Recover the amino acids of this structure.
């Protein structure tokens, strides 16, 4: 089981790691592809708008040899005497902005920020949007797209107005990331789901392993608990068959009582298992009625007199609660107190002393049961109310049971809308504090 579990964890971990690496590689390629696509789309928009501005102006055209130019285009000295109609004379700034926005949307660039300008080479822009100058010089975050407002062919440049259209893509990389945000979120969510599924799988495997161990322990405990009384009954029956024992009425009565006591013991074990089954199905039925807890505690403690004498222990009662009436199920609440006292006796050492005290607050009754027994570790305190869990008893090997008692206690407390708190120090003892609501007439 350990090797299988380890193999499953390793294989799932490698698969998860490989999937994450593939997603990272895929996303890098997607990011680069999207960046190229955005760049081409912006460039296409700039060319289209520039041509549209030129064609709408219907400018005078002359042909000149192509020359190297400045960042804004052709050398202006080649056509310094030409004075065609400028873009500013034909269009308003709002019209140019709307034209750019229209073509951006056609090229799948909706809701992007941009600034623009129309400028002559080596001169101040004749038309510029409000934040163009700030955007133009911020080349770290923004991307420039400069296109002459004239048609271009392979050999010549047809010159209308010596102007350039400059479009600034604001926060270019942020626009790319924004366009990919749902893909990133989806991939991230998908990865988180896979990781969560991995942990749930591992947790389920661990839980299954733990349940398997608990099942084995439970079967071993149950076998032992039933084997002992059955063996005792078998010996008592064999003794009763003996003629000498049959002739002695006192011995016959003794062995008959043994059979009866062991039968009662077995019935208690069966009842405990049935109670556990009821708790699993959440079918714990309560017959609530007003009960004086002080009387219930006193009666319960009296049943342990013989066991205390055998242990050389004592129970000290400090029932100081001013109000002690609660609405409770008498049978289940008696079993609750009985289980706590029984545990204190089971996990005891020499000179056992159990103190049961009560006090009442405005709305609740507080019952405290403390002992000077072997105590529990922090791990046992955390798990004490788990079904089938049994605290380690060190050198004590005579502690019997199925590990269902404390789970039953917690279920009964919850059913009565109460709380239970455990405090324990290993080697010094334990204390259980129960807090349950008082009956309404006492509040």
């Amino acid at each position: 089981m350990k090797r299988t579990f380890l193999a499953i964890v390793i294989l799932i971990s490698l698969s998860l790691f490989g999937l994450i690496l593939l997603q990272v590689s895929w996303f890098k390629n997607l990011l680069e592809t999207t960046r190229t696509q955005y760049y081409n789309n912006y460039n296409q928009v700039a060319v289209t708008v520039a041509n549209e501005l030129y064609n709408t102006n219907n400018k005078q055209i002359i042909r000149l040899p192509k020359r190297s130019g400045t960042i804004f285009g052709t050398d202006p000295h080649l056509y310094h005497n030409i004075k065609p109609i400028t873009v500013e004379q034909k269009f308003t700034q709002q019209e140019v902005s709307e034209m750019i926005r229209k073509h951006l949307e056609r090229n799948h660039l909706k809701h992007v920020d941009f600034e623009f300008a129309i400028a002559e080479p080596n001169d101040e822009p004749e038309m510029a949007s409000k934040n163009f100058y700030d955007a133009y010089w911020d080349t770290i975050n923004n991307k420039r797209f400069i296109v002459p407002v004239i048609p271009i062919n392979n050999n010549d440049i047809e010159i209308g107005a010596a102007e350039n259209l400059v479009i600034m893509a604001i926060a270019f990389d942020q626009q790319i990331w924004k366009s990919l945000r749902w893909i990133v979120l989806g991939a991230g969510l998908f990865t988180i789901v896979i990781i969560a599924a991995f942990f749930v799988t591992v947790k389920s495997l661990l839980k299954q392993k733990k349940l398997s161990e608990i099942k084995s322990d439970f079967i071993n405990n149950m076998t032992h608990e039933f084997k002992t009384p059955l063996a005792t009954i078998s010996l008592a029956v064999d003794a009763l068959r003996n003629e000498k024992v049959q002739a002695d009425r006192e011995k016959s009565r003794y062995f008959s009582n043994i059979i009866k006591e062991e039968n009662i013991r077995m019935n208690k074990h069966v009842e405990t298992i049935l109670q556990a089954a009821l708790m699993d199905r959440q079918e714990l039925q309560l017959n609530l009625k007003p009960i004086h807890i002080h009387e219930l505690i006193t009666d319960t403690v009296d049943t342990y007199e013989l066991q205390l004498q055998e242990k050389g222990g004592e129970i000290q009662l400090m029932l100081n609660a001013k109000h002690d009436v609660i609405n409770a199920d008498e049978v289940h609440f008696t079993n609750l107190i009985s289980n706590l006292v029984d545990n204190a006796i089971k996990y005891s050492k020499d000179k056992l002393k159990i103190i049961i005290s009560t006090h009442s607050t405005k709305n609740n009754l507080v019952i405290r049961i403390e002992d000077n027994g072997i105590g529990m570790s922090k791990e046992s305190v955390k798990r004490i109310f788990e079904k089938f869990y049994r605290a380690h008893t060190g050198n004590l090997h005579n502690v019997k049971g199925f590990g269902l008692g404390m789970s039953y206690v917690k279920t009964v407390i919850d059913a009565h809308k109460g709380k239970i708190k455990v405090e324990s120090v290993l080697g010094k003892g334990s204390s259980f504090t129960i807090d349950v609501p008082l009956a309404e007439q006492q509040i």
